[in-house]
Structures are given as C-alpha cells and as structure tokens.
Amino acid sequence: MKSITIKGSERESVGKVATKALRNAGAVPCVIYGGDQPVHFSAEEKAFKSLVYTPNAHTVVIELEGKSFNAILQDIQVHPVSDRILHIDFFQIFDEKEITIEVPVKIIGNSKGVMAGGDLRLNNRKLKVRALPKNLPDFIEADITGLDMGNKLYVTKVPTENFKIMHPDNTVICQVKISRAAMKAAQEAAKAAKAGPAKGKKK
C-alpha cells in the first residue's frame, strides 16, 4: 500500500485554548494512539489534502522533529458548515502486527450482462481487509467479466493474497441488474414469440 508522509510538531499544550489557537493558525490538532502512550501533534491543514480528500487508501509516515511513526487514519472530525478539518486521530502500526483497514474496490473486465444492456450496480465501494502492513493492498480487484444480467459478484470470488476480507461470505461487491430498456425489449420479444408469425392478408 502506498504511503504518505506528514511533517508536524509535537504539542505540549492540549487544552481548548491551545487547540483553538492552532486552528486559527491554519493547523490541525492530531493524536496518535496504539503505542505506549498517546502522541499529540499538529500539522498544517494542507498537509492532509492527499490523505483525506481521496478515494484511495494510504498508510502514513508521521515525522515529528526527529521522531517517526507509521500509522493509519482512524478518525476525523470535520466542521459541519465549513468542512474544515477540526481533529484527526491516527493509529500507530507495527510491521509484525496485523491491522484492519478499508480499501477501495477496482472494477476490471467487461461484463456480458452490461454489454447486453444491463446496469452495473456497485454495492460496496470499499471493503475492510486485515493483513500485516507490508501486505495491505492498494485496492481489491473485482473482475466482472463473467457476470450476466441478474448475476452478483460476492467477496468469495475475488483473489485475496496475503490478506483477509473482513466481511461475511454472502457480501455482494457488485451486480448486474436488468435495465428498463432491456426488460422492455425482453417483454416485447416474449409477446412476439407468443403471438407467433403474422398471418398473411386474404385475397
């Protein structure tokens, strides 16, 4: 999985006054959990753009004045009106410990059902996976080549090398539904077949 580096500074004061001052200065207060003790730090808001405003999943290297932490984004608080980032929680990761993270689904292949006029519906754009940090995939490939109209692709049908998908086996990734146009065409074809060949006019 790709990694993003964020440079910041450790925080000595974590009260409301200090937090408000950070935000006014264009910085985001953050904390790293998962280690021996929480690590409070701040970084410029623009440093999180490629981490937060993207559909992709990333691990994070947080550099704090000579110290380095490997982590993943755990939780984020956003202002309900301005959409500004108010606070971010990170979870520290270690090479020898498995972690669970959501990764995006990447559709590949050409579905027979879609080419025949069906509609592809993506039920899950992201899936939770569990693995060692080095084995985390950037995305999960969902091959729809074999899907005909009415077919579904389940999580059990996608390759999982060195990671585990943390969803029940009956979880649907995507499906090909019969479109209205295809359904109407099928109904008209059925009516025509039932009526039989048109009778010629009497002389």
Automatic annotation (TrEMBL):
It comes from the Bacteria. Residues 6-90 form the Large ribosomal subunit protein bL25 L25 domain. Keywords: Ribonucleoprotein, Ribosomal protein, RNA-binding, rRNA-binding. One of its GO terms (cellular component) is cytosolic large ribosomal subunit. Residues 98-179 form the Large ribosomal subunit protein bL25 beta domain. GO terms for molecular function: 5S rRNA binding; structural constituent of ribosome. SUPFAM superfamilies: Ribosomal protein L25-like. GO terms for biological process: translation. CDD domains: Ribosomal_L25_TL5_CTC (cd00495). Transmembrane segments: none annotated. It holds the Pfam family Ribosomal_L25p. Belongs to the bacterial ribosomal protein bL25 family. CTC subfamily. NCBIfam families: bL25_bact_ctc (TIGR00731), PRK05618.2-2 (NF004132). Part of the 50S ribosomal subunit; part of the 5S rRNA/L5/L18/L25 subcomplex. Contacts the 5S rRNA. Binds to the 5S rRNA independently of L5 and L18. This is one of the proteins that binds to the 5S RNA in the ribosome where it forms part of the central protuberance. This is Large ribosomal subunit protein bL25. The gene is rplY.
